[in-house]
Amino acid sequence: MKKKISIILFTAILALTFWSCSESIMNEINKDINDPNDMTSKLIITDAMTASAFSVVGGDFNFYASIYIEHNVGTFGQFYNAEIRSSEPTSATTYNNTWDGVYANLYSLKLVREKCSEGGAEAGNYHTLGIAQILTALNLAILTDVMGDVSWTEALQPGVIFTPVLDSQQDIYSDIFSLLDDAIANLDKETIYLSLGNQDLIYGGVTDLWKKFAYGLKARYTMRLSLKTPAYADVITFANQSFTSADEQAAFNYNGSTALSPFYCMFRDRDYYGASQSLHNKLVERSDPRDAVFFTTYPNVGGSLVFAPNGTANQVQGAYSISAISTITAPTYLLSYHEIEFLKAEAYVRNNNLALADTALRKAVTAAFQKVNIGLSAAEAVSYFNTTVRPRFTANPLSEVMNQKYIAFFEEEALEAYNDYRRLKAMGNNVITLENPKNATQFPLRYTYGSEDVTTNVNVRTAYGDGTYVYTENVWWAGGTR
Amino acid sequence: MRKILLMLLFFCGFLLSASAQQKIISGTVTSSVQGEGAMPGVTISVKGTTTGTTTDVNGKYSLAVPVNATTLVFSYIGMKKQEVEIGNRSIIDIIMEPEVLGLDEVVVTAFGVSREKKAIGYSVQDVKNDVIERTGNSDLAGAMQGKISGVDIKPSSGMPGASSQIVIRGARSFTGNNAPLYVVDGMPVASNSDIQSGSGGSFSTAGNGVTGSDISNRAVDINPADIESIDVLKGQAAAALYGIRASNGVIVITTKSGKNNAIGKPVVSISHTSAFSRVSRTPDYQTTYAQGLYGVYVPNSSSSWGPKIVDLPDDPTYGGNSNGHPGEFYVPQLALGQVADAWVTPQVFNNWNRYFRTGYSATNNVSVSQATAEGNYILSLSQTSQSGVALASGMDRWNGRAAAERKLNKNFSTGFSANFSRTDIDKLPTANDAALAGVLGAPVSYNLRDYPYYIPGDPYTDIYYRGGSWDNPYWAAEHTIFNEKTDRFFGNGFVNYTAKLGDKMKLKVRYQLGADSYTTDFKDVFEYGHAGSTGIIDNYGITSFTINSLFTANFDWNMTSNLTLNAMLGNEFDQGNQKTYSEHGEDFNFGGWAHIRNANLVTADESFYKNRTVGTFGSLSLQWKSLIFLTGTGRYDVVSTMPADNRSFFYPSVAFSFIFSELNAIKNLDWISLAKLRLSYAEVGQAGSYVQNYYTTPNYSGGWFNGFPIQYPMGGISSYIPNNIQYDPNLVPQNTKSYEIGGELKFFENRLGIDYTFSRQNVVDQIFTVPLAGSTGIRSLLMNGGKVHTNSHEVILYMTPLAMKNLQWDLNFNFSKIDNYVDALAEGVESIFIGGFTTPQVRAGIGSTYPVIYGVSFARNEDGKILVDDDPSSANYGFPMAGEPAVIGKVSPDFILGGGTTFAYKSLSLNALFEWKEGGQMYSGSIGLLDFYGLSTRVEDRESTFIYDGVKSDGTPNDIARGGPSDPYALEMLHQNVKKLFKKVDLGVSVFARNLLIWTALPNLDPESSQGNTNMGGSFERFTVPQTTSYGFTLDLTF
Fold this sequence. Notes:
The structure holds 2 protein chains of 2 kinds. By secondary structure, chain A is mainly alpha-helical.
């Protein structure tokens, strides 16, 4: 009897054991109930916009460009090192977060593009596809503009290709233009899919505005290649199909509670910038009313403004004045209306159509005066334009267009100012004066690759070397080889 | 079945022989230890001959001895050898007593099996309760430190409840778990942190160790005073029966049960331990220069590169000499604090020493235990309360225990063990969130303690010597909370069935059902006013419930007097269920109500997890005489956390030991008590945590920013992106193959002993989140990647130079040299990030030991000399130049030597312990900052010129002198740009007290202050609560 019970018990335990670890039971136990395994494109693309604004356009690329282009002066920590060109400009860790950020965003966008293309779960969702193509073009351009040759055709295949090769900047630029052309075509198509609506944080699902944005980017990137393939008439054609007012510009607005502006966070959490002496000088030279708006004394430190000398500032917090427009809601411009007018102004100047250039420049300066965190009036802008800008424009049209653009770009659009500066130097238009004495030998002509690739991707490691190439080699569109 | 057994017995019996002129002596051998009873396997020999036998399972023996024999020798390892006159007796019953000298010789192996140590073919080391309790350490890991070879125990800080890292024979995983499995009274229990330090309170992400606070290990719930003994199963062969969870070794803890009491009345034991602690080291501060920059007093500067303190009254702005306050200077912070007179006389303050208080720890234990003929029980209650040296840090812990075992009849016995604990720990944040940053970095000219730290009438606006996002540490002590509370129950109930199957066979079946259940609630609060902002609150926690069912059957068979067989079969079922939650709040309306309801921005999250492991295992051991022991084991595990079809694994082990000293030639040498050779081989795996790829809410915390600059849902809009870690569906378990060879020698009746072990582990198919090139779009992929091998040498040496009736002197040493090499990582990957800052970082790199410190190196010429910048226009003229990113330091120590000595006179004893870790480097953010801020004595001489030791680009020695009157800020420049590493050589000694003396090459701080519980934690330090020196006493009362 006892034996029987034992045998039954033993068999029961054995059976229970095998049942308790069968594949189906184990699959059930390991099922991830906390996270979704698939996602609709409209919930993915929302963050592609946020990331494009906060991390890519408004991220570290822009923070460091602000230093190199002398919109701000690095006065502490890594920013101070960048200011005095000590290690940061050549180190692979400097831009790594944004490097990763751009590719992560491009990967999300790739999933959206695949979903919405032929064979995907949402084939025929043309408008979301078009928007994803525009954002892809923007992210890719920002990356290649600062880094030159980057991984693209072999990139974005995690677990399949571990060490993507680098593609030439020239090839990448041709992809950027095709992405934008495809986007415009897709946005023109009819679709049965609902509009993105509120999930579209930039335009609320209005496809016409996305199209204008696409044309604006075509204008910007056509201008970018002016050293290689000047096409100023095209720039004007594209710009004319873009924004006609600041209401239409591609701005990402921060609500001040669940979304805070990058420059605001940078001061609040790091306090690494001081007000730039050279920017102040340019404003003083023009009696620019924005000189009174751009800067403020360090909080709780009274007295007059103290500007940080570019390249020779002391490493100190609390001593220099700071930017006054790093407000909590200062928008990030993926592409601003004033930039479109500046692009037109430059193109007209290049084509010797000074009258139209004058008009475009006036519109640009007026729009720049009325940025939300500047808050000057159109009247103040026009008066400034007539008394200061026009005489200087007459004396040297290109110089004044580019200097006004440079000033207008303070401080959210530093990266575009940096791109312009390098293009102008390459084209022999030495019209913007920077004052950092280190620039004699150590102006960063480009950014280093991200350390995540330098340590894991031999193709990038080889291209990176020891990082000192940033001082000697221009990117392709600025006359370099890579 | 029975027939076969009989036949086997018959054949075995054949081997026995008898001869003439003998008489038969028989008897029973029992143990004096309560509960052990009859002793099988005791060797009985006739003195001066080779005649002998061993006792059977009932402790009975029968021996034919020559008629002229006079003396029988009874021996059993771990028991006192007895020589007995035979006289006219034919029945001789013996009670064996445990041997007091030397190490205890019975160890607990897998699944509660006690075995003679000599029978074991791998290295096991035990620590008994008197050793654990000796220093009154309330932390279990700390109590074990320096007492076990091959084990590196790193306490993270002097904070009460601070986590410790225990790594046995080096690391096997880069990003996963390297902690051993804890088994308490036969049941595996949770011992790790559920969260890694610096992971921002996330249960699923790895910690970077640069923000937040240390997170305690769950081992903190175990009260060292409840422990009877700890057996450390170091190698894979020792742990193989535990399967997949045991690849990092096993710490087998046996708690007190009353079993070892003498049968009789209840025993009441009351004890109290008090310990006082002080910060173990104070940095050497310069005492010449004041707060400021570039030689000028700047009252809100973080640096001390100001004027000489004596010259402060001469300052044109703040000096009193030209402002009607001769000999004084103006402190704006005093004015902010509405102090009537903001003019003070220059003075030097040691803000560090003035900040730390004397820590106090009190532990009270009460227990009642009793042993009777039918069983035994224990009831105990302990309370530990600790206040740390840093303000507002402390720990309170209650432990309640009940355990009992009772015989039901001849065959059955049943029992249980129940443990309850409540732990409440107040911590300090470290690194980028550190409150201590301001204590360490306060200018010596600033009176941090006595100057007001908030504006009167406005307690949430702090007053501080510097700007930026840091809080005054005195303000933080009142308004920053980092608390964790855990309520925990674990225990098990069991039934034992023991039966004798004939004379030679014994069957023991045990079924045990256990549970480990706890809830930990964390609360991290930066009050309104933190960093000049409106505050942050994080409430998060975990509820974990694990059920463990264990069935084992043991079969012992004395096949012949020389051959013994032991077989075991078992099954284990382990299922865990966890629920985690988090609430994040930002932007308080006002100060003083640190509650989620006071936050204007709230997000919440929760997750549920399940995991199951089912294991079936068996072992077979053979023993021939006391000479040869052979054991083979196998375990088949099925785990839920791996991809389908890759869930099951088989792990074998084999171990062999040979006792030379049982050979006749050696047996007769009096001066050798034991000579043994051990060999073993084993394979143990580790499973990954596989899930299907998923989408997740984007997370914008980290990088430059505090809190969450972007937070979904954003104005009611959500978004999801592919998770930046993906999972390889072809994941297979990681495997560790190890072999071990060792030997043990004991001399002079165990008064001198040496034990040496060499082991080699080859870890293949390492599972880790392989960092992918950023250009793949994903940060990392959980896959099989790396290969690692470890060579480990361990030596244990012990001796008793003095042993007299009332006087005994013992010495013991534990030496470990563990070299861990990374042989391969994933495709294209040369090194992987483990943790740290932008630079430097802790990484695992191919060809290097693990882990290493990686960062921007100094540029060097072909001869390896540091190149200095000889461009006169450069800011770094005459200073070293940055080179390529490279390995700049190795973290693991060259060797660890631990040791102890006890000098006992009657019942008084004096103990000293030391631990010496040689070599290994760490990055000390604190020391770097003392230089950076101009506070260390290294930057005290600011008037002489100096030449950095290096060469110029043409190879000639650097002759660029910087510094001196014409270049006054060069020293400041140098220290602001050069990051240093420090070599660790430390040696600590405690006599009665802990950590009494520390010698270390690390200037200023105790190297056992680091960033907490992650794999990299031990190699980084930044504003961590320093280690402490403790003095204490214990009062014991037993009746």
